[in-house]
């Protein structure tokens, strides 16, 4: 599928792959390669497309099925927080133009956290992509404090 692929064609491809979530379909439409985007997110038991040789099935981790990993993050000290004269701490982060790999990672984190019923420090469930970023930042802060 080329960049100029119509939304109707993308919806048809998504339906063929068993993907019904409109948010995923819209995300695919805005990607550089909608077909590749949808194929990555398709269920593992999806039949091959017409005129395509059957591929040997490869196991894919399913959301909510003990698919976990540990992340080793380098953290730096934040000096002078107690005095009120510490470094500038931004309240806003602009994240735009994510690569396909980053978007897939964000999708998997979002749905994995939702399936695990994880909550933010304020008790709010993870609903949006920004909540994933907030949760990651809370984990980094908690690791430093703990």
The separation of the N and C termini measures 49 Å
The helix count comes to: 5
Report the uncertain regions.
none
| Cα-based radius of gyration, to the nearest Å | 19 Å
Count of β-strands:
0
Mean pLDDT: 76
Task: Give the overall shape.
Answer: elongated
The H/E string reads HHHHH
Helix content: 40-55%
Give a short account of the largest sheet. none
State the domain count: 2
Estimate the strand proportion: under 5%
How does the helix and strand content classify structurally?
Answer: mainly alpha
Structural write-up:
This protein has 146 residues and is an all-alpha fold. It has 2 domains: 1-46, no CATH class; 65-81 and 98-146, no CATH class. It contains 5 helices and no strands. The protein is elongated, with a radius of gyration of 19 Å.
Features:
about 150 residues
Compile the SSE list and pairings.
Blueprint: H1 7-17, H2 22-29, H3 34-41, H4 100-115, H5 129-145
In short:
This protein has five helices and no strands. Helices cover 41% and strands 0% of the residues.
């Amino acid at each position: 599928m080329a960049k100029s692929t119509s939304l109707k064609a993308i919806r048809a491809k998504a339906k063929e792959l068993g993907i019904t979530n409109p948010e995923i379909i819209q995300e695919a439409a805005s990607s550089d390669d909608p077909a590749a985007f949808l194929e990555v997110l398709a269920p593992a038991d999806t039949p091959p497309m017409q005129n395509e040789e059957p591929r040997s099935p490869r196991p894919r981790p399913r959301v909510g099925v003990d698919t976990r990993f540990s992340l080793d993050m380098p953290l730096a000290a934040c000096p002078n927080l107690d005095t009120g004269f510490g470094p500038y701490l931004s309240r806003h982060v602009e994240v735009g133009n994510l690569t396909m790999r980053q978007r897939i990672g964000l999708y998997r984190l979002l749905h994995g956290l939702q399936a695990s019923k994880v909550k933010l420090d304020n008790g709010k469930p993870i609903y949006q992509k920004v909540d994933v970023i907030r949760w990651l930042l809370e984990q980094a802060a908690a690791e430093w404090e703990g």
